[in-house]
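Read as amino acids, tokens; as here:

___
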Amino acid sequence: MENPGVYELSEDFSVEKILKETKNYPSFSFFIQSGGAMSGEIQLPSELSQKVKGQGAIVVYDKKKTDPDALMKKWVEFFYKENCDKCVPCREGVYRIKEMLEKGKIDKKILDDLFFVMEETSFCALGQIAVVPFRSLINKILDEKK
């Protein structure tokens, strides 16, 4: 990004408007992660017209230079280390995601089941929100490459 920083802007702004106002709208093929940094949703350029609604961070990724598998491994390491180990859905769900990524075999059916259980039964928000970046990256970036 040309102008990284912390900006205070209107909640009525779209992600696209924020990137343009801050002179950070990329001239290359990209996708973003918006919301809570590693727990944020992946969005494509065609989805940037929605309002930010108080989102905390916007991370811009170069589509050509970003390895989706490496990105997911980075996220899973964070969630693996940061979960409290108190509830089974989050602890085991993150472990199973980590296991799949380490083996290089992503099974979408198993992931969908894990995501459902984590969202519906995790005690805290970490387990519930951990699925957001994985689901959105898989559905929007990995599926696009097929």
Summary: Strands lie at 30-35, 41-43, 57-62. The CA atoms of residues 76 and 97 lie 7 Å apart. The helical segments are 15-21, 68-82, 88-103, 108-121, 125-129, 131-145.
